[in-house]
Every structure is written in structure tokens, then in C-alpha cells.
Specification:
Elements (H helix, E strand, L loop, with lengths): L9 H19 L1 H34 L1 H4 L2 E2 L3 E2 H38 L3
Antiparallel strand pairs: 1-2
Helix pairs in contact: 2-4
Length: about 120
């Protein structure tokens, strides 16, 4: 059997090239660059905070089990309270990101759409 050769359709190439133009215009926009920059920077800050809290907890598990075994009340330990705290901290960070996204990033997105005439 021989392999069939499919010719390239010039209309498909023109369609692809013209479809890429709006994305290029968006990518060059100062509002888009500002949105991406602010969102990326804020996301990295939250990521570092979460990693510090998480690995601090893991470090305590690895190096000071006796501290985590300290009883708090009659039924729980410091380790349990700190573990729940790590999970709650993740929820708090998520809430902070959502609040920022709903206020600042949505405003930047709306400004970007206006500047592009959409």
C-alpha cells in the first residue's frame, strides 16, 4: 500500500492566519500585559505562602513529633489542630484570590475588552 498525500488547502492557511491576528492584538495590549503580570505575581505570592505553611507543618511532623503530640483539651492534639489549620489556610488563600479576581482582575478584563472594542 502506498500512503496517500493530502494537499494543503490555501483557504485553510488564510483562515488560520487571519484567526491568529486578534490574539496577537490582545497579547500586545498593555492592559493584557498588566493583567497577566498582576495575576501572575499575586498567584506566586499566594503559592509561596501556602508552601511555607505546608512545609513548616511537614517539618514539624518530621522533626518534632513530641510537640505535635501535646494534648489540647481531652480529645485532640496540637498536630490535629495544626493540620486542620493548614487546610483552613488553603481555603482562606482561595477566598483571597477569588476576592481579588472578582474585583481587580475583572476590572482589568473589562478595561481590556473596552480597549479592544468588544
Amino acid at each position: 500500500m502506498t500512503a496517500s498525500v493530502h494537499p494543503i488547502d490555501p483557504a485553510a492557511i488564510r483562515l488560520t492566519a487571519s484567526a491568529a491576528l486578534p490574539t496577537d492584538r490582545v497579547a500586545r495590549s498593555p492592559q493584557f500585559r498588566q493583567l497577566v503580570s498582576e495575576r501572575t505575581r499575586f498567584s506566586w505570592i499566594l503559592t509561596v505562602l501556602m508552601l511555607v505553611v505546608y512545609f513548616s507543618f511537614i517539618g514539624l511532623i518530621a522533626f518534632d513529633k513530641s510537640l505535635l503530640a501535646v494534648k489540647i483539651g481531652t480529645t485532640s492534639s496540637l498536630g490535629l489542630v495544626l493540620g486542620v489549620g493548614v487546610i483552613l489556610f488553603a481555603f482562606v488563600l482561595t477566598g483571597i484570590y477569588v476576592a481579588r479576581a472578582n474585583s481587580r482582575y475583572d476590572a482589568l478584563s473589562a478595561e481590556l475588552k473596552r480597549s479592544l472594542g468588544q
